[in-house]
Write a structure and sequence with these properties.
Helices cover 39% and strands 25% of the residues. The strands form 3 sheets. Strands 1-12-16-14-13-17 form a 6-stranded antiparallel beta barrel. It has helices at residues 2-24, 94-119, 123-156, 163-192, 196-221, and strands spanning 45-53, 61-63, 69-73, 81-82, 87-91, 224-226, 231-236, 243-245, 248-251, 256-258, 261-264, 270-277, 291-296, 302-310, 315-316, 331-339, 352-358. The protein has 4 domains: 34-54 and 267-359, Beta Barrel (Elongation Factor Tu (Ef-tu), domain 3), CATH 2.40.30; 61-87 and 223-263, RNA polymerase II/Efflux pump adaptor protein, barrel-sandwich hybrid domain (OB fold (Dihydrolipoamide Acetyltransferase, E2P)); 94-115 and 203-221; 121-193, Helix Hairpins. 18% of the residues are buried. The protein has 5 helices and 17 strands. By secondary structure, it is of the alpha+beta class. It is rod-shaped, with a radius of gyration of 47 Å.
């Protein structure tokens, strides 16, 4: 028993010594995944920057619809290069299309009636009126002949024709003359064609309906979003079946309204837009002597930048990380640099970088 206790004690002593030795060993620290960005210039100015596609002016093109509705079709994909006028997105236009067709039909009907008024007199109608004149002339001749016979008989023998019969024949002639005058005036009215006031009124009606059709057709074209310029599709925020409006598309992640589509430059060249704090603006070197370098976060890559232009307006600063739009007291000056994309590294528009500006 004592021998067993001695053995166990010896084993415990050895185990304690090994544990103490292992615990005393100092593990060398692991090297950092990347070094923190450092200022390469003696008096360099730091600014936050964002990578964007190269644009001659302004920023990336944010596409918003001018009408609201459900997305029916998206014929493009992200990363696709498109030409100016390419269809980017189609909103359901069934109601507006039906309204446009209805107004077009009304305008066509008004134009047909206007053409009918301008084409008067119609030959067939004029022929009928002329026939009515001939018939009235014949009736007048018949009545006149009857009156002449009775008048001749009355002149020979007043007792051969009653006074009433002679008066009736005289009245029949007067009635026939009146009917002939009406027929002639109706013929002249038909020959004169449509009244100028009726034509003017119908012409104005047609113009009003046609302009309503043009307005509806112009609105119909707004349901199809087309590329305003050559470029590359950087982002498509809605999906088929989702609702979009003039405020854009709702993002359930940020709970904000985003542009329906974002277009960047079709060229592979990129820019970096950095924002210099207003306190540091007086320290900016002359543009001819200005140099800059950017550090890509999460790496040791440092890329020289080429000065492109300054956006000459100091604006309220926003928080770039989540694009919050609240205005603060700090104001910044935007400066745009050109960057050559490294062959061994991917750069995408929207990437946040650290920029140092020196002389």
């Amino acid at each position: 028993m004592r021998k067993l206790l001695f053995i166990l004690s010896f084993i415990g002593l050895v185990a304690g010594g090994v544990t103490a030795y292992v615990s005393a060993i100092v593990q060398p620290p692991l090297p950092p995944a990347f070094n923190p960005p450092s200022n390469p210039y003696p008096n360099g100015i730091y600014a936050e920057g964002m990578v964007e596609s190269e644009q001659p002016s302004g920023e990336n093109i944010n596409v918003y619809p001018e009408v609201s509705g459900t997305v029916a079709r998206i014929p493009v994909t992200e990363g696709l290069e498109v030409k100016k006028g390419t269809v980017l997105l189609v909103i359901d236009d069934s109601i507006q299309r039906a309204t446009t067709l209805q107004l077009e039909s009304q305008a066509q009907a008004a134009f047909t009636l206007l053409a009918e008024l301008k084409a008067q007199p119609r030959k067939e109608t004029l022929d009928v009126n002329q026939a009515q004149v001939v018939a009235a002339q014949a009736s007048l001749k018949t009545a006149q002949d009857e009156l002449d016979k009775q008048q001749a008989a009355y002149d020979v023998n007043p007792k051969s024709i009653s006074k009433d019969a002679l008066d009736s024949a005289t009245n029949a002639v007067a009635t026939a003359k009146a009917n002939l005058a009406v027929a002639e005036k109706q013929r002249d009215l038909t020959k004169a064609g449509a009244w100028i006031y009726d034509i003017d009124n119908q012409e104005r009606t047609y113009n009003a309906l046609y302009k309503s059709y043009l307005s509806a057709n112009a609105l119909l074209s707004k349901y199809t979003l087309r590329a305003p310029a050559d470029g590359k599709v950087l982002a498509i925020n809605p999906t088929v079946g989702s609702y979009v409006s003039a405020q854009g598309a709702y993002d359930s992640y940020t709970q904000a309204m985003d542009p329906v589509l974002v277009l960047g430059s079709a060229r592979e060249r990129l820019n970096v837009r950095c924002y210099v704090d207003e306190i540091l603006v007086p320290r900016l070197p002359d543009p001819s002597k200005l140099k800059a370098q950017m550090s890509v976060r999460g790496s040791n890559v440092k890329i020289p930048l080429r000065f492109v232009r300054t956006q000459p307006v100091v604006s309220p600063k926003i928080e770039l990380a989540d694009q919050k739009q609240e205005r603060v007291d700090v104001r910044v000056l935007p400066i745009i640099f050109g960057v050559e994309k490294p062959k061994d590294m991917n750069l995408y528009p929207g990437l946040l970088v650290d920029v140092y500006i020196g002389e």
